[in-house]
Amino acid sequence: MNKSLDGMKGSNKENFLDLAPKQAKKPSNSGKMPKLPKFKLPNLSKKLIALVLAAVLVLAGAWFFVLRTDGELTNQQVIDKVQSLVGDLPSETPTIATIEDAELSARQDGFYEGSSKGDKVLVYPQSKRAIIYSPDDNKIIKDGSVSVTE
Questions:
Q1: Which of 15, 26, 47, 82 is deepest in the core (most CB within 10 A)?
Q2: CA 121 to centroid of chain Cα atoms
Q3: Is residue 37 part of a domain?
Q4: Angle, alpha carbons 80-84-89 (nearest 5°)
Q5: Residue 139: inside a domain, yes or no?
C-alpha cells in the first residue's frame, strides 16, 4: 500500500488517506464481561410467569402425592375391587393381610400356590372363606374355604 501511495503526488495522496477507513479504537476488555442491554418485562408478563410457576408447583405436588399413595391400596379399596370381581362376598368385614414371602407361604399351605409378594389375602372368619387377590393384575388368584381357629 505504501508503494502505491508513494507514486501519488500532492493532494491526491492526502485525499486517498482521508477516504481510507479509519480503525475504531477497541475498548480493552481487561477481563471484564461486556455489559448486556437490560431487558424489562412488562408487569403483566411477570404476573403470568408467576402464575404459571405456581401452577407447575401445585401440579408437581399433586403428582408426587398420587405417586406416594398410589402404591398401597386401602382396605376398603381392596374390598371394593374384590367385590367387583367376585360379586357374592359375605357382608362381614374381612381381615386383610399382605403376602410378603409367597414361596414360604406356599410351602406351609397349598392354598397360597400361585400367589406373589404383595398379593392381598381376605379372610372372612364367620363365613369361613378366604380370597387371594392380586392388585398388580387385578384378578382373583384363589377363592376357597378356610378353617378358622380362635
A1: 82
A2: 31
A3: no
A4: 75
A5: yes
Q: Quick check: is 129 in a domain?
A: yes
Q: Domain total for the chain?
A: 1
Asked if 99 and 105 count as a contact pair (C-beta separation under 8 A), the reply is yes
Task: Count the alpha carbons within 13 Å of 139 in the hemisphere toward its beta carbon.
Answer: 5
pLDDT in tens, the chain (150 residues): 455 555 555 555 555 555 555 555 555 555 677 777 777 767 777 788 888 888 888 888 877 766 655 557 788 888 888 988 988 888 888 989 999 998 988 888 888 899 999 899 999 998 899 999 999 889 999 998 887 666
Give the span between the Cα atoms of 102 and 110, in whole angstroms: 11
Q: pTM of the entire structure?
A: 0.52
Enclosing domain of residue 85: 75-145
How many whole angstroms separate alpha carbon 130 and alpha carbon 96? 10
Residue 8, domain member (yes or no): no
Question: For residues 42 and 15, what is the distance between their CA atoms, to the nearest angstrom?
Answer: 52
Spatial strand order of the sheet with 139-145 comes to 95-98, 120-124, 129-134, 139-145
Cα 144 to Cα 133: distance, rounded to the nearest angstrom: 12
C-alpha cell at 81: 375391587
